Amino acid sequence: MMYKTCLLGANLLICTRVRSPKILVVLVGVALFAVTMILTPSKHSTTFRWDNSTVKQWNRVNTLQNTTREKHNIINGSPSVLFETNDSSRSYESSFKSRILHEHAAGKLFANTYFIVLKRDNARAEHIKNLKLHVFPGATITWAIDGASYSMTAKIREWQRTQLLGSRLGGVMNPAKPTGKPKIACLMSHVYLWKQLAQELDNSTYYFIMEDDVSPAQDFHVRYPGVVQELRDLDWDWVYLAIHPTWRHGNKLSIPGKRFINKSPRMVGNAAYLLSKRGATKILSSIFPVTIPKDQVIRRMIQQGKLNAYIVKSELIHVIGQQGEGFHGQDESRRFKSNIWDH
Question: Residue 236's closest CA among 316, 302, 309, 313?
């Protein structure tokens, strides 16, 4: 940009001393060209959105070559070490932003992140595609099992035959009720990801799993690296990143020295969570045959001391879909109706 400015200045200076009309026209043309070049961003510049703000990536090639390298441990596409830098003075936030700049184009950022999305719900699917593109580069969209599909009855019978589901399913899990098949489909969509995680070769691998009605908190980029950092000296299995509104009052089990996480209280809802390979193995070895919703399964295991679970001190991922029965539209933050409770 400096040489362009100099070029413009030189041309303007010459223009004031030249009396020939033809030469003057040429010099004015060159000056206009220089102005255009100064005002036009570099061709390497790219822009992507983080919530409502914009992060600019100036001269990506030079940034990648010249910025201090961060340590990475990518095994089987899942980062087991996040946001670690050689410079201990760098904050969580600056380290995270640097990771964004470095890996957005490479598609490695959030390589351990999975969205479970109901394909036929176009509004939710488009919402998650936008999140994946602008906020969670490198994440994977997995299509949820559709509880409304014609094959659902046959699938339930097969899961019961193979002891994944109990032979008697009551309450909201009863396939004869409107909520039954969608609840079962939601459960099994998560189970398939848990099985995949349990088969990862690296024991330190963990997944960041979200459903299709979520949105990151405004300061997600500040707090998420802190959560990951504070987990590194803990033997953790599960971390709630979204907090169900009916259970927020119980989130008081603080841990000395931890700024971002608490021990998990009694909790429901699995819209967004971290799950370690060890945690996935524990769940899969304990829950079958399942007879209750998945969030109740997890809550029970935590209460029984079978899962070492934590929760963020304040919500890191917001749920913007309906939670529970009834949808009356009083809460404007709830953008999506439920595919389980409303039919």
Answer: 309
* Residue of 216, 207, 310, 309 whose CA lies nearest to 259: 310
DSSP annotation of 64? H
Closest Cα to residue 271, out of 193, 213, 224? 213
Give the torsion sign (CA, 79, 82, 85, 88): negative
Beta strands 238-240 and 309-312, pairing class: parallel
In the chain, % helix, strand, coil (3-state, to 5) comes to 40, 15, 45
pTM: 0.71
302-315 pLDDT tens trace: 999 999 999 999 99
> What whole-number distance in Å separates Cα of residue 257 and Cα of residue 74?
29
- pLDDT of 219-276, one tens digit each? 998 899 999 999 999 999 999 999 887 767 778 888 999 999 999 987 888 899 999 9
Is residue 152 classed as helix, strand or coil in its secondary structure? helix
